Amino acid sequence: MTAVENQPSTGGGEPAPAKGRRPLGRPMLYTAYGQDMALLNTGAKKVAVAVLLVVGLLLPFVLEDDLLRLLATGAVLAIGAIGLNLVTGYAGQVSLGHAFFLGIGAYTAAVVSGDPEDDQLYGLGITFLPVWLIAGGLAAAAVGFVVAPLASRLRGLYLAIVTLGLVFLGTHVWNEWDAVTGGIGVGRPAADPVLFGVDLSRRTEVFSADQQLYLLMTALLVVFALLGRNIARSAIGRSFAAVRDRDIAAEVTGVDVRKVKRRAFVISGFYAGCAGALLYSITGYLDPSSFGLLVSVQFVAMVLIGGVSTISGSIMGAFFIALLPRLTRELPEYLPFLSSSATETPNVFQVETLLYGLLIVAFLLLEPRGLFGLWVRIRNYWKAWPFSY
Amino acid sequence: MTAPATAPVLEVEGVTLRFKGVTAINGATFTVGERELFAIIGPNGAGKTSVFNVLSGVYRPQEGSVRFRGEDILGQRPNKIAAKGMARTFQNIELFENLTVVDNLMLGRAHQVKYGMLAAMGWVGPARRSELADRAAVEEIVDFLELESYRRFPVGLLPYGVQKRVELGRALAMEPQLLLLDEPVAGMNLEETEDMARFIIDIRDELGLSILMVEHDMGLVMDLADRIMVVDFGVPITTGTPAQVQRDPNVIKAYLGEDHDTGGRRKKQTADEGTTS
């Protein structure tokens, strides 16, 4: 580790100028706190992010449509996973109720964007994407605000069980409230991703629907990841971590623990709500049974596999889980005893469910920092290359 | 007993704290003056840490009053008391072990963070300025406590003595008026103890803070403290300067037990010798 160079003291604790000239070839030499605290504080990070963005932009012209759709789903799941990571990874408040928040976002967005002429279903007819997206996020955030006091009373396993209850509560409401959800087995159309008069879920002259959706969801993921990262590195993210590590010490240090927990649930709810709103606008259809316990477990898997309390880990985990079914679908070719039909056992869907559990266990035992931890190992190896120590 | 010249920073009067049948503190009464280093000593289980927990708002006593800068702070939440300018360290280190040293110190400034979630998300304007100012202030403490080489390490990986120093740093980052130190040199070797003693003297003399300290290292207490209160089983026995306390027969009795007729087997010891362990 290289020590950070101090700004020559001007006395009186004046903040150092945010920007300053940085000598070339000395990546760990900082001459201002602003440089040290920047999001991309090394040259390598800047290059890596630039490369990732360029690759992300080029992908839709290279990949098949069905793969793009999968990646778009992965991007939306990543937004949800960041939300769960903020409350569970950063703030340490175990939540199994993520599916519930997702459902609130999805249905709020569907109602806002829904057809007002339809006499079976509620609809406001506002299809402009930012409106229903933020409405979905805010609705879920509001529920997060209401749920948060639970976390002031309960912790750990008890909180997990109570938030689990939310999922079942939600499932019941979604199944029964036909005017919003369409009812069991019927469902309703999801929110229409319309941006400036263009319905992105229909092909246009230039792009196919999946290309458009991929670009939209990736762009949104970049925005949400950036916002999440900013929260994580600010005083708010630090106070989340303080409450997670030592709540009594945090309080004595001047952190308002109840406020922090409330903030964590609100922001997590907002992310989940937005993810829920977006997720079903890809398929265009919303079924009341889509928000069960398995969805919550999947998000927990994303966070644990990706890396607890890292934003980039949440993204890696989400893409991993999104692409996993695609891989298991290939299995019957190599393992003939597996069936690709859901009616026979053993089938690939069972393998998939099994894999979530196995992967969580394997990662917790072998690499608790998740995919992010694997990345750190690789990075550290190459940092010291060709020396192995 | 030498009374402090100016108005006391902290006035504790008749504080009594009970847990069911156990009386942890029984009528603790003392004051801490401006720039004074006031020490509380006593055998294990005497209720010293309980006094700290009452002061910082973790426990709520059944009786008594605590006035900080003239304001009654009993019953307020710990974070409110912290914001008023009372900082503390813990006997068993209570750091945020997954965070770096800098982040731990930055958290000491949590109570003066004014910006909200939206500003934090954008990392613009007030949020950015506030973070940079906090970082500059934290670096002063890094400098003061000689933590430069540990800045970026997660504190969980640091040696014990350094962790103790980081915890002191976190308390200082709160810019307190009164600093509560709960066994600042417990478990430290000689050199670490001397370093910590130097920091404590600097904090009092250069930063001008009032300090309330609980410590078992009698050598350190006698050398540093302006006044000492001795407690035993929650009951304050005596308060006075180090020299007065050392001569007090009640103190010797509390630490070494009463001199029963044991046929001359037990030699008389002074409190100083007998308790430096």
UniProtKB/TrEMBL annotation, chain A:
PANTHER family noted in UniProt: ABC TRANSPORTER PERMEASE PROTEIN, HIGH-AFFINITY BRANCHED-CHAIN AMINO ACID TRANSPORT SYSTEM PERMEASE
Annotated TM spans: 47-63, 69-87, 94-112, 124-150, 157-174, 213-232, 264-286, 298-324, 345-366
Species assigned in the record: Klenkia terrae
Chain positions covered by the region annotation Disordered: 1-23
Subcellular location: Cell membrane
Signal peptide: none
Lipid bilayer topology: Multi-pass membrane protein
Keyword set, alphabetical order: Cell membrane, Membrane, Transmembrane, Transmembrane helix
Protein name: Branched-chain amino acid ABC transporter permease
From TrEMBL, chain B:
Ranges of residues in domain ABC transporter: 10-258
A GO term for molecular function: ATP binding
PROSITE patterns: ABC_TRANSPORTER_2
Cited InterPro entries: AAA+_ATPase, ABC_AA/LPS_Transport, ABC_transporter-like_ATP-bd, BCA_ABC_TP_C, P-loop_NTPase
Top-level lineage group: Bacteria
Species name: Klenkia terrae
Span list, region Disordered: 256-277
Source species taxonomy: Bacteria, Bacillati, Actinomycetota, Actinomycetes, Geodermatophilales
Keyword terms: ATP-binding, Nucleotide-binding, Transport
Protein name: ABC transporter ATP-binding protein
